[in-house]
């Protein structure tokens, strides 16, 4: 019995259990930040899809400034779609020696959209590229390492 259990009367979790719980609660954005950090650290070239671009709205919701910024964001997204932004694009393209790896990174509870699954089928028919839906940045790192 741990000291914390004796003092507080409740079982406590181990450090590993705590890390696992925190990892499972990370957002998709947090997983992507960690993967990008790892790719940068290892000097691996990548591109982030514009479909994953978050357009900020720094104003108080409902204010005139918020409505103006929201309108501007919608115009920017509309322009991006007109110039080739497709639904289903992977979040990150990683360029490796023998393959172009498209990674659709999800949080641990995330799921792929029908558009993403459609694009995955199309890309995986090629001989030079691979599209994978991956849950969690650690699994994405494992995937990249398979192709190094």
Provide a quick synopsis of the model.
The protein is of the alpha+beta class.
Describe this structure in words.
α3 packs parallel to α6 (137-147). The chain contains six helices and four strands. Helix content is 48%, strand content 14%.
Classify the helix fraction into a percent range. 40-55%
Unreliable residue runs: none
Beta fraction? 5-15%
Q: Ends: how far apart?
A: 45 Å
Key structural traits:
148 residues, alpha+beta, Trna Endonuclease, Chain: A, domain 1, 4-stranded mixed β-sheet, 48% helix, 14% strand
What topology does this entry show?
Layout: H1 3-8, H2 15-25, H3 28-41, E1 46-48, H4 64-82, E2 92-95, E3 100-106, H5 114-123, E4 129-135, H6 137-147
């Amino acid at each position: 019995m741990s000291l914390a259990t004796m003092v507080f009367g409740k079982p406590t979790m181990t450090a590993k259990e705590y890390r696992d719980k925190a990892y499972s609660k990370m957002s998709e954005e947090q997983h992507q930040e960690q993967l990008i950090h790892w790719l940068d650290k290892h000097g691996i070239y990548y591109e982030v899809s514009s479909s994953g671009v978050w357009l900020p709205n720094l104003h108080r919701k409902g204010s005139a400034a918020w409505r103006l910024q929201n309108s501007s964001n919608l115009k920017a997204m509309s322009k991006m779609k007109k110039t080739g932004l497709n639904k289903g694009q992977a979040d990150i393209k990683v360029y490796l020696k023998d393959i172009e790896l498209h990674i659709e990174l999800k949080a641990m509870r995330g799921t792929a959209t029908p558009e993403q699954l459609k694009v995955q089928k199309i890309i995986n028919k090629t001989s030079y590229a691979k599209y994978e839906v991956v849950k969690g940045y650690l699994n994405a790192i494992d995937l990249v390492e398979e192709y190094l």
